[in-house]
Write a structure and sequence with these properties.
Helices cover 15% and strands 32% of the residues. The protein has four helices and twelve strands, in the order E-E-H-E-E-E-H-E-H-E-E-E-E-E-E-H. The protein has a five-stranded mixed sheet, with helices on both faces. Strands 2-4-5 form a three-stranded mixed sheet. The protein is globular, with a radius of gyration of 18 Å. The protein starts with a strand and ends in a 7-residue tail after the last helix.
Length: 223
């Protein structure tokens, strides 16, 4: 009923992207609980030494890809030609900048997302924004709902620009829900396991996550 992508899920194959889009279009809910998801297209090739299939991860990145079997499988950013499949068209947001060390700011506390919290617009989720952050783009679905608008500064050629990272939700044409936190640090708010910043554990982050999972996979009916 749901597909969850968590942590630093940056490298996908074409087949992975195709499968996730197909799941969404077949009414599987999607939850992206990290940042910088599905940014680079890569592929798997046989091991160099043994020939065993799918053992070598190949990603030429900015360089030309001399071994791509088709333009669609070129190992570049998904958003760039010739692949031209911006992440935001699937996830709702896409990677914009790093490093960022800041707070998430609630801008539109969608009632079902914020149920069980005391959050109101303008409240902050301390330390949850970073270190790689995503935002809405021109390729985001038209019905995207931004839940946060969290400011961060980008310095280019000595000029400081303030941008806004977004946590979002949209409903696909199939009826599936797609939720994205837009921040790598979201998981710091869930528990202190392996966390160098245990003070980041946040009951509101836990509750929002709980609300999303409950909406995606309703509890089974009692007999």
């Amino acid at each position: 009923k749901a597909f969850l992508s968590v942590g630093h899920d940056e490298y996908w194959t074409k087949q992975m992207r195709d499968a996730i889009e197909s799941a969404r279009d077949q009414r599987v809910n999607l939850g992206f609980f990290g940042g910088n998801m599905g940014y680079w297209q890569m592929r798997f090739e046989p091991a160099v030494a043994t020939g065993e299939t799918n053992k070598t991860m190949v990603s030429y990145k900015e360089a030309a890809d001399p071994a791509a079997s088709s333009a669609a499988e070129t190992t570049t950013q998904f958003r760039l030609a010739p692949v031209s499949r911006p992440e935001a068209s699937l996830i709702g947001v896409m990677y914009d900048f790093s490093p960022v060390y800041s707070d998430m700011v609630i801008s539109n506390c969608v009632p079902w997302v914020c149920a069980g919290t005391n959050l109101v617009n303008g409240d902050k989720l301390i330390g949850m924004l970073g270190y790689e952050v995503d935002r809405i783009s021109s390729s985001s679905p038209a019905n995207i709902q931004p839940i946060t608008a969290s400011p961060y500064n980008v310095i280019r050629n000595g000029v400081t620009e303030t941008r806004y990272s977004n946590m979002t939700y949209y409903q696909a044409a199939s009826g599936s829900g797609v939720f994205a936190t837009g921040s790598m640090y979201w998981n710091y708010g869930l528990n202190a396991y392996g966390n160098v910043n245990p003070d980041y554990v946040n009951p509101n982050v836990q509750q929002i996550t709980r609300n999303v999972l409950n909406a995606f996979v309703p509890a089974p009916l009692k007999p």
